TrEMBL record:
Belongs to the metallo-dependent hydrolases superfamily. Adenosine and AMP deaminases family. Adenine deaminase type 2 subfamily. It is an enzyme of class 3 (hydrolase). GO terms for molecular function: adenine deaminase activity; zinc ion binding. The active site is at residue 199. Its cofactor is Zn(2+). Keywords: Hydrolase, Metal-binding, Nucleotide metabolism, Zinc. It comes from Acinetobacter wanghuae. Its EC number is 3.5.4.2. Pfam families: A_deaminase. One of its GO terms (cellular component) is cytosol. It comes from the Bacteria. This is Adenine deaminase. Catalyzes the hydrolytic deamination of adenine to hypoxanthine. Plays an important role in the purine salvage pathway and in nitrogen catabolism. Zn(2+) binds at residues 16, 18, 196, 277.
């Protein structure tokens, strides 16, 4: 494995991870049992065998079903703590995690239950491992604008615990323009904004995320390469793309890792970062994603360091803390 020791040792920030996508089958079984909820699998092996996706929708169907066993504050706490433990192992020192409130509120789970469980885990992770974190609330784009407005309304009481809003779920047929007014309100209320765009959807959706939603980062964005003018815009504005290599492979956005464009994008000056997306479903956490591209694309030490630096530059932490981590990476021998 190329540069394994460097990958392990580099401090990293994760900017694109869905907390519901970190749900390991073992924990899913344990929580299902204690909540007396039936799941359609008899063993962990059977669950993993079901993780054979051919596109985004085939994954989302299983991902939403898995989240159904989360009921109590403690469930959300346990879910997030299990993820933080992986962060500690991978030397991820800062994380900005997505959560999908509508996946839970639509099942009758209170918004408050979700947010209390997650924020308690964030506090404990900082105490235990020194890992800092922010929460990003995503709207499910297959649902209506009206439902997104209702969710934003609920989030206003938790403004100090949610740094940004995002947009996820089925991309095709649900362009960013559908949520232009919701995002305008979110920005007015002081939230930063991000959106999934250009994962399965066309470059046009990335333009919309920039021009209509006025995003601070684009999640995925790998299809931007199909539009040279868009690429120039991303480079000029130093717009971060939160790229998720193993996700792209598992969801057939790329046929094999050697064809992934993250190195080409980096070499052209696009501000790309490496992330795990839904690590329990896609076969790996942060370091696994780094290892996969380092091997397949023959990345140099300098490129790996640049990717780690980019992760802090693109993060929503203070400039002072950013500089602390960036200097650590730059001074690496
Ligand atoms: N929700 C969880 N993972 C996602 C992804 N990769 N794209 C869109 N929505 C998601
Ligand atoms: Zn995602």
């Amino acid at each position: 494995m190329r540069h394994l020791e460097l990958i392990k040792a580099l401090p990293k920030a994760e900017l694109h991870v869905h907390i519901e996508g970190t749900f390991e089958p073992e924990l899913m079984f344990a929580i299902a049992q204690r909540n007396a909820i039936e799941i359609p699998y008899t063993s962990v092996e059977e669950v993993r065998q079901a993780y054979n996706f051919h596109n985004l929708q085939s994954f989302l169907d299983i991902y939403y079903a898995g989240a159904n066993v989360l009921i109590h504050e403690q469930d959300f706490y346990d879910l997030a703590m299990a993820y933080f433990e992986k962060c500690a192992e991978d030397h991820v020192v800062h994380t900005e995690m997505f959560f999908d409130p509508q996946t839970h509120t639509d099942r009758g789970i209170a918004f408050d239950v979700v947010i209390q469980g997650l924020t308690r885990a964030c506090r404990d992770a900082e105490q235990k491992w020194g890992i800092t974190s922010h929460l990003i609330m995503c709207f499910l784009r297959h649902l209506s604008e009206e439902a997104a407005f209702e969710t934003l309304e609920q989030a206003l009481a938790y403004k100090d615990q949610i740094i940004a809003v995002g947009l996820d779920s089925s991309e095709m047929g649900h362009p960013p323009s559908k949520f232009e007014r919701v995002f305008a309100k979110a920005r007015d209320e002081g939230f930063l904004v991000v959106a999934h765009a250009g994962e399965e959807g066309p470059a046009e959706y990335v333009w919309e995320a920039l021009d209509l939603l006025k995003v601070n980062r684009v999640d995925h964005g790998v299809r931007s390469e199909e539009d040279p003018q868009l690429l120039q815009r991303l480079i000029q504005e130093k717009m971060p793309l939160t790229v998720c290599p193993l996700s792209n492979l598992k969801l057939c956005v790329v046929d094999d890792m050697q064809q992934h464009n993250i190195r080409r994008l980096l070499q052209q000056g696009v501000h790309v970062t490496v992330n795990s997306d839904d690590p329990s479903y896609f076969g790996g956490y942060m370091n696994d994603n780094f290892i996969a591209i380092a091997d397949a694309l023959d990345l140099t030490e300098q490129e790996l360091k640049q990717l780690a630096i980019n992760s802090f530059e693109a993060s929503f932490i203070s400039d002072q803390t950013k500089q602390k981590w960036i200097q650590k990476i730059q001074n690496w021998v």
